[in-house]
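EI: anyone free to look at a 312-residue chain?
SC: sure, send it
EI:
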Amino acid sequence: MSRTRLLPALALTVALGLAACSSDDSGDEATSGAAAAPIVVATTNFTETKILAHIYQQVLEKAGQPAEVKELTTREVIAPALEKGEVQLTPEYLGSLTEYLNKATNGPDAPQVASGDVEATLIEARKLAEPKGITLLDPSAAQDQNAFAVTEDFATTNSLTTLSDLATYSSSSPVSLGGPPECPDRPFCQEGLEEVYDVQVGKFVALDAGGPLTIQAVQQGKVDVGTVFSSSGAVSSNGLVILTDDKGWQTAENVLPALNTSVVSDTVTKALDSVSAVLTTEALQALNAQVEVDRKDPAEVATQFLADNGLS
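SC: here you go
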């Protein structure tokens, strides 16, 4: 999740010490199709974005464009760095990025412009990104939305298949919710769960963003419901089920590359588009499972993905 939709709005001063590409360099890059300096691919500390960052880095290297991965923290850190050119590329999630840019540009109370419509949301996102010097390439079919999981036993015992069912159940027995610390204040996490579905949350437990702490807490009954991601490879393998978002609350969260416009070139675009063309939600689930369940290294998983899809 966020990836990420759930991560906190941190007011941080970022001193990355990374050289931004100048406007003169970007002109040379567009002409030559490759930059002399490496493109820095920023990632959060979330498994999925780590894998995606390594996929982007490796496919760029294969195309002759030097690139390196830099792990940072959250969108609230990465997006300003991307705008300044302190990093030049990051894997993003369409709906969440759109709303981040919307609030950053139009204020915290700006009406939501992201929706479940991928094309309409992409149009809004590009309107907001372009003035900031950020270019959004075409999104992949892969989506990673916030989701809410319970154990199979809890779902069966209480006849839960949807979030509306959870709301009905919680009206007489408020539920405990586990997830990342920022979840209570996020519109696509606890805040929205309460406002959109009227789910009664009796207790929130700060854990992680769809990771092992949350999965384990749900398994062990420490919380009734855990915030997870729809592309997680650890949900079904750990006996959990995701409750259906029957009101279509979550926005389109297609994975797409976000770049500082100065490094956009035919070479870069073609390489990244080749990844988006083969990236599906099912592929994300498989990639995540290899790291989360099989404990493989994200860079190695990225290498195998590119080889399996004829991109190495």
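EI: Confidence is low (pLDDT under 50) at residues 7-35.
SC: 👍
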